[in-house]
């Protein structure tokens, strides 16, 4: 098979049929669809196996629950295509999604990114071609969030040869971290001004994650992004953009969870802000949030040492 589509699944029987129908109806036929069931307890397996019985391109794999990153890693391990696409089990794709993305992939192009729609909002990168630095810079655009997986076609050789996988200790921004690690190994990206991926955010799931300790792993993801960008000598403007993103996320999570933040979470906020607050080029609002976070931490957690 030329293109492998990896679909992680967990208790998605209500939405899975639409997702798989959109994949089955692709204009480009030479695909394999790897369905990774991450320990579902509903009828996900029944729906998935209906497609497997009717279409030999679909392959169902069950694993014990370990999270979406472990499911995607299992899909990467099992895939056989020259290219990889990731489609979430509550999203769907345009009938010409694979065909259009694949048509733009060449020896000189390592990554193809299309537009996507979430709700009534469409997001398209207007630049046609970008190098490594510009690509990573665009991924962290607050106005056009582009760190998602679904609107991208990856070369499996780059993933395999560089042992790129999803960090299973990260539960938010794990897709951005994966994209940044992949981008460290590429030269050029092709951007398409066509909306081919339809993202359906599950508000209840996102809200639950934001209220748990998993939200703070987003800080871990962004710190790892900054580390990678520094290690691979990206332009300082790119590194600073991610540092500013990190500071915004760090203060945002803490200020939203002051009452329930644990001692270890407060320690994490302090260490992150102490490390990065003098780097980057944070705007006035972020600087104000940093100051406010320090003030609150000072009065709620004395004896931790100087915060300078």
Automatic annotation (TrEMBL):
Cross-referenced CDD domains: Glyco_tranf_GTA_type (cd00761)
Listed InterPro entries: Glyco_trans_2-like, Nucleotide-diphossugar_trans
Domain Glycosyltransferase 2-like: 4-122
Entry keywords, A to Z: Glycosyltransferase, Transferase
Gene3D superfamilies the UniProt entry points to: Spore Coat Polysaccharide Biosynthesis Protein SpsA, Chain A (3.90.550.10)
Family annotation (Pfam families): Glycos_transf_2 (PF00535)
Full protein name: Glycosyltransferase family 2 protein
Species the sequence originates in: Facklamia lactis
